[in-house]
């Protein structure tokens, strides 16, 4: 295989996910899309901010992810931007995700959309919601690390 074809091109990241959730395990999944939707994704017109994964009849569906309507598609591109999209995973992975989602406090959320070999893939993470004090602790930790880096940087100049 050609290395250029295997390269991953990140289209969109959900930066808010690591702030609001403890991310545990990640999975890569394919997406069932229409033609205009994949063109819109390639143009970076996707928003993962409020997205989540839901189980329906033993399948996993991506909910509440906004893919902008592709303007050049004409009447063929008139689909709902927030429509549910089926995720393509192995049965074993689906079973693992569904089992964890049924546990109290766990959810599956999209963290990243990328293109691999010309196909759109999504990375979903099993996550547990953070409490307010967890967010404050993370913020304090980041701030102290930043101050340490600045102090070390200032010491290197002397």
Q: Could you characterize what this model shows?
A:
This protein is of the alpha+beta class and 158 residues long. 35% of the residues lie in helices and 36% in strands. It has five helices and nine strands. The chain has helices at residues 3-6, 15-20, 35-42, 91-102, 132-157, and strands at residues 8-13, 21-31, 46-47, 52-56, 59-63, 66-67, 85-88, 106-116, 119-129. The strands form two sheets. The chain has a seven-stranded antiparallel sheet with strand order 1-8-9-2-7-5-4. A hairpin with a 2-residue loop joins strand 8 and strand 9. The mean pLDDT is 85.
Give the beta-strand count: 9
The largest sheet, given as strand count, sense and whether it forms a barrel, is: 7 strands, antiparallel
**In the residues, how many domains can be counted?**
1
| Text of the CATH class | Mainly Beta
Helix-strand pattern: HEHEHEEEEEHEEH
Q: How many whole angstroms does the radius of gyration measure?
A: 19 Å
Q: In terms of per-residue confidence, which ranges show pLDDT below 50 for 5 or more consecutive residues?
A: none
């Amino acid at each position: 295989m050609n290395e250029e074809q295997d390269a991953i091109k990140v289209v969109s990241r959900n930066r808010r996910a690591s702030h609001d959730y403890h991310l545990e395990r990640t999975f890569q999944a394919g997406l069932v899309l229409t033609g205009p939707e994949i063109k819109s994704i390639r143009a970076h017109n996707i928003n993962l901010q409020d997205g989540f994964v839901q189980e329906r009849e033993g399948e996993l569906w991506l909910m509440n992810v906004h893919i902008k309507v592709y303007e050049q598609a004409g009447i063929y591109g008139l689909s709902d931007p927030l429509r549910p999209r089926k995720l393509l995973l192995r049965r074993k992975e689906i079973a693992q995700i569904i089992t964890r989602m049924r546990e109290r406090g766990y959810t599956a959320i999209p963290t990243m959309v990328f293109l691999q070999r010309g196909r759109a893939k999504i990375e979903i993470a099993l996550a547990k919601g953070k409490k307010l004090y967890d967010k404050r602790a993370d913020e304090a930790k980041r701030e102290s690390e930043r101050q340490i880096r600045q102090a070390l940087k200032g010491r290197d100049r002397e």
